[in-house]
Amino acid sequence: MRQLPVAWRWALAGLIAVIALAVALWPRSRDADTVADNGRQARAGAGVSEQQRLAANLAACPRPAAGATGSGPLAGLTVGCLADGGTVDLAAALAGKPALLNLWAYWCGPCAQELPYLHQFAQRAGNAITVLTVHSDPDEAKAISRLTGLNVKLPGVLDADARVRTAVGAPAVLPISVLLRADGSVAQVVVRAFSGVDDISDTVARELGVAA
């Protein structure tokens, strides 16, 4: 078989290099980003057994209503659900109702003191507001173990990369509570631990107009 002239071989090699570069730089779609996010969450939860989830008996994560897309700084952000290991489109799931997102971690002492107060507040508030815990650390197994030990059954999500904190512009400290309006906008970022159920209730009433 005759070999291609040297000039042609160089031209062909250059064409292949250009095509490879174009593929590498081609913008990823939002769906591709979502798949990548889901992959990170799945890897983070790989060490959690079904028995651990059942023993924790956490409330199911909120799910989007039909047609809900969500808005505000959390739009498009997907996190893992501690109760079942699935994924949650956070802004869409919270759309239409005020919400309190509590950012915490299993190693945070003030978080452990505050979480039972949040559990009691959620029981008092009923359906008036969504109270969701956001574990801001990759270790899902220790998050579930901590909640089990505290007997806190609130719905919770895993934010392994602290993207919720980044999205709302909160400082790198814990605990933090993010108060969201029904339209997904941020009403207040509370950078401290709540001192009790009445403290939570008063803050929520003042910032969100929800009485509990």
UniProtKB/TrEMBL annotation:
One GO term describing the cellular component: cell envelope
Keyword Oxidoreductase belongs to the record: no
Keywords: Cytochrome c-type biogenesis, Disulfide bond, Membrane, Redox-active center, Signal-anchor, Transmembrane, Transmembrane helix
Transmembrane stretches, start-end: 6-26
Signal peptide: none
Keyword Lipid biosynthesis attributed: no
SUPFAM superfamilies: Thioredoxin-like
Domain of life: Bacteria
Name by which UniProt lists this protein: Membrane protein
Organism name: Nocardia ninae NBRC 108245
